[in-house]
Amino acid sequence: KQAEYEKQLEQLNKDNTASLKKKELTLKDVECKFSKMKTAYEDVTTELEEYKEAFAVALKANSSMSEKITKSDKKIAVISTKLFMEKERMEYFLSTLPMRPDPELPCVENLNSIELNRKYIPKMAIRIPTSNPQTSNNCKNSLTEVSYMTISLLGFISLI
């Protein structure tokens, strides 16, 4: 009976040892998985911090660009208003000028005497810019004010 108990005890010891080794392997496997997850978590946390920093830089750049765009929009609005007012002033000025020559002016007689056909005399005034064109090196202002001198062709020819 005792030999049988010893045999059973030896078998239980073998079973316990095998179970213990199996549990140790499982524990090592879980520890390995935990270590991999911890490393992955640290990597993700580091990457998240990098993204946060990049986002902060992008946000700062975006707000800076937004401020510049707002300033540019204000400048464009001011320049557009000035341009519109200048256009209106020029249209009014041009509308006050005679568009067709007076046939009784002495210069018209001179034109007729040199046999200049009236169909070549324009019916509208000629606009000649009086400022120098803007060079590519001087592009600080997005628009320069240009004043126009209006001369009728008939008046110009009478000066000759």
TrEMBL record:
Q: Which residues form a coiled coil?
A: 2-54
Q: What are the record keywords, sorted?
A: Coiled coil
**Is Coiled coil given among the entry's keywords?**
yes
| Highest rank taxon of the organism | Eukaryota
Q: Which residues form the DUF3496 domain?
A: 21-125
What Pfam families does the record tag this protein with?
A: DUF3496 (PF12001)
Q: What is this protein called?
A: Ankyrin repeat domain 18B
State the organism of origin: Homo sapiens
